[in-house]
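EI: anyone free to look at a 242-residue chain?
SC: sure, send it
EI:
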Amino acid sequence: MTADESGKPIASGSAVVIAPELAVTNCHVLTKSASVTIRRETVQYTARRDTSDEARDLCLMTVPGLRAPAVTLGHESSLRPGMRVYAIGSPRRLEQTISDGLLSALRRDPAGELQMVQTSAPISPGSSGGGLFDAHGRLIGITTSGMRDSQNLNFAVPARLVAELARRSNAPAGRAVVIAAPTRAQPETPAVQPPPPCGRHAATHLFQRPQPRPPCRPRQRFRPSRPCRRPIPHLQRRPHAP
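SC: here you go
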C-alpha cells in the first residue's frame, strides 16, 4: 500500500519476493507515493524504492526484516503458448488470491526479444505487481496490465527483465536471485496412444505421429465346403417274410 506525505492512502498493489529483503512490483503502483508499506498476513514492513526501470514498469524495493521465501525465476526456454499458468496477487486487497489460465502468446520486438507474456489468467485492479507462475511454481512474469474493453487479454513483464534489474540493484551482496536452468519445451503428447490403423482406415489417421506397427494380417475369405460328389447308395427296403 502506498501513501502520500500526509499518510493518505493512494493505491494498493502486489509484489513478489525475489531475494531476501528484496521485492519487485510495477512502477505505476508506486507513482506519487511518499511511503510504501508491505503487508504479509498480519505483519507490516516499511519498504523503500531501490532500482527502477520506468520503461518496462519494473521497480525493486528493499524491505528490511522481510524473511518471506524467495521465488525461483523461470527461464524463457520453458515457455510455450498453451501451457497452464497461475497468477497470484492481491486484487481488491484480497491477499494471496490465485487464478489460473493459459499462456496465450509471447509478444516479441522486431529483434526477437521477448517483451510481454500474454495470458488469459484474470488480472483485477490490485493485482499489478503480482506474479505469474508456471505449473512448477517458477516465476515467469510480473503481471502489469489488462485491456478493459477486451476479454482475457492480460499481460506480464517477462522474468528475464526482473533478473536484469536485480543485477543493477543497490542491494548488498548475498541477495542473489535464483534463476532456473534453461530447458527445452517439449510438445505435449497424449497419455494413451491409439492402436495403429490398418487397411482402409489408415488414411483417416494421417495427422498422427507415425508409430511402428505390426504388419497387417490379410483377411481370410470364407470358402464354403464343397459337396461330396461320391454317389450315396440308396437304401432298399427288404421284403417281409411270408
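EI: The first helix runs from residue 159 to 167.
SC: 👍
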